[in-house]
Amino acid sequence: MTNDECKQVVLDIIADIAPDEDLTQVKPDVRLRDQLELDSMDFLDIVMELRKRHGIEVPEAEYQKLASLDSCAEYLTPKFNAAGAQK
Amino acid sequence: MQLPRIVITGVGLTAPNGDNLAAFRRNLLAGVAGISRIDVRYMGQLLAGVCHYDPLKYQKKKEVRVGTRAGSISIYCAREALADAGLDAAAIVKDRTGIYIGCTEHGNVETENEIYNISKFNYDTKYWSHYHNPRTVANNPAGETSLNLGITGPAYTIGAACAAGNLGLIHAAQMLRLGEVDLAICGGVSESIHTFGIFAGFKSQNALATHDDPAKASRPFDLARNGIVVSEGGCLYTLERLEDARARGARIYGEIGGYCVNSDASDYVLPNPVRQAECVRKAIAHAGLQPHDIHIVNTHATATPLGDIQECEAIRAVFGEGCPDTFINNTKGFIGHCMGAAGALELAGNLPAFDDLTVHPSINVDNLDPKCALPGLVLNQARRVERVDAILNNSFGMLGINSALIVRRFVP
Lengths: 87, 412
Description:
The complex is a heterodimer. Chain A is an all-alpha fold. Chain A has one domain (3-76): Non-ribosomal Peptide Synthetase Peptidyl Carrier Protein, Chain A, CATH 1.10.1200.10. Chain A is built from four helices and no strands. Chain B is of the alpha/beta class. Chain B folds into two domains: 6-247, Peroxisomal Thiolase, Chain A, domain 1 (3-Layer(aba) Sandwich), CATH 3.40.47.10; 256-407, Peroxisomal Thiolase, Chain A, domain 1, CATH 3.40.47.
């Protein structure tokens, strides 16, 4: 999985949990909370959907790594690739 | 002590056969039912009353996703009631407005959904939603409504089984009389069709209706009735003290005349006609009326073989043969049993009778059960009458809770 593919996975999840938001203009280097109406429960949703859909676990201490699309990709892409390698 | 007079100034509703009072009333007079077949988890196709309001009229998609069906129904009904009352939702005094919503139950739908969800993950509870608690707290429907409207006064639900819709109104009238709030949004809601448990429970009790034709399935007082059709729905009113309503030139649907809430203290599920009759008598006395002053009695009858007979026994005991101007109807033949919304919806369906002097019928009565043959029963066809000055609405529930609410024609 590439970083761009990983960002798309996160955007697909956000599209479901924040269906009123326009995601076409999301800036990858800006905190998601600063450009979208997302609260702490929504971030728990992102964590839950990563777990449900992709088997990816994000420990609470590392939630801040989901702050922006860029940081998501940096943090999650290796996890996806490690999970893929195990399969 | 002279208590403040309380009046109804707005109605917002969604029923299986109408999403506003005008459409609902039109279908009640025309004999149009709203029952269909839905797929119920683990059980297959069952008869149910489904509402067709547009949740996105007053909610964002995210609110609908995060919230509950009962919350969504409440928000829709509350906003519709405020608009109907000519009240600007943005301009009402937020800390002087109360939300009092009757519920038969709350939380079953959301709990069943989560158990189903984790069943897909080998019952690993780490997949259990963090929304479970806010969705299942008993005050959820009222709380979601307060969030949506920004209302900061008291907002809570009243658990009263299937008497809950009436209790929402009764409690609101009491709070207005005490001066706790200046405006009340009140009534009842139900999301019950989304829990298999209520269907399965009634089925195990041999109390779930069956019929080849969904529109004929709910048939109180008919000899062949065979149980309840479970429905969702909601009906919330705006109630105000008369002086406040008049000061702003509000249209007045009717005045809270009197009420009674009592308990059977005799069985978990079986009704008690002695206590039901006592409840109705006390409500009439509370209103300062006599039985012959009541012109419409809307029955609670749910189409169970025993329950209908017992309510008819109670009504016969109170009204007997000496009330020639008292007419009796039932709304569940049209909409099934809307549980926590039933009392509030069924009252709303009769309120226009103050203006059009027409009693909507009880439908689907092909062969009247002789044990339900009350004088004044309006069957299958709407009936024009000479006077409608007082409507009495019965709503009874499990664990023996009874309620009777009287609304009077408004006379300044």
